[in-house]
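Quick one, probably user error.
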């Protein structure tokens, strides 16, 4: 019987290492879904992330053309960003940035899945769906 592979780690440093290994070479932009703290106003996500990426790219001597941002998702306070891993790594050390995931992962791989329990902790009856 073969051993089931371990799920990938989702902590920030593990994701950054994974993105780094997927980049063709150092300095090549990669895509990541960035999640921001609740303190960041949803309506300013795009502007805030774009400004931070541009500032960090310039600080590292990277061209601002090497970065881009996608559409902000206000409910999850997230946005897809394209930038070199070194820029993303520094961004994740800043206030306001919470975590990141590779942008190419299907949502089903990283979302919470129900485990057959009701919010009050009681088990769901599989035959009736919990309804008597």
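Nope, works fine. Designed sequence:
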């Amino acid at each position: 019987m073969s051993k089931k592979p371990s799920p990938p780690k989702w902590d920030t440093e593990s994701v950054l290492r994974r993105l780094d290994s997927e980049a063709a070479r150092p300095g090549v932009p990669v895509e990541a879904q960035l999640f921001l703290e609740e303190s960041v106003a949803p309506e300013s996500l795009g502007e805030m992330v774009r400004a931070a990426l541009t500032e960090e790219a310039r600080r590292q001597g990277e061209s601002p053309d090497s970065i881009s941002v996608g559409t902000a998702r206000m409910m999850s306070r997230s946005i897809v960003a394209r930038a070199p891993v070194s820029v993303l790594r520094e961004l994740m050390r800043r206030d306001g940035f919470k975590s990141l995931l590779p942008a190419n992962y299907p949502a089903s791989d990283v979302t919470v899945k129900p485990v057959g329990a009701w919010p009050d902790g009681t088990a769901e009856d599989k035959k009736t769906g919990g309804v008597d």
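The helical segments are 12-22, 45-59, 85-91, 107-110.
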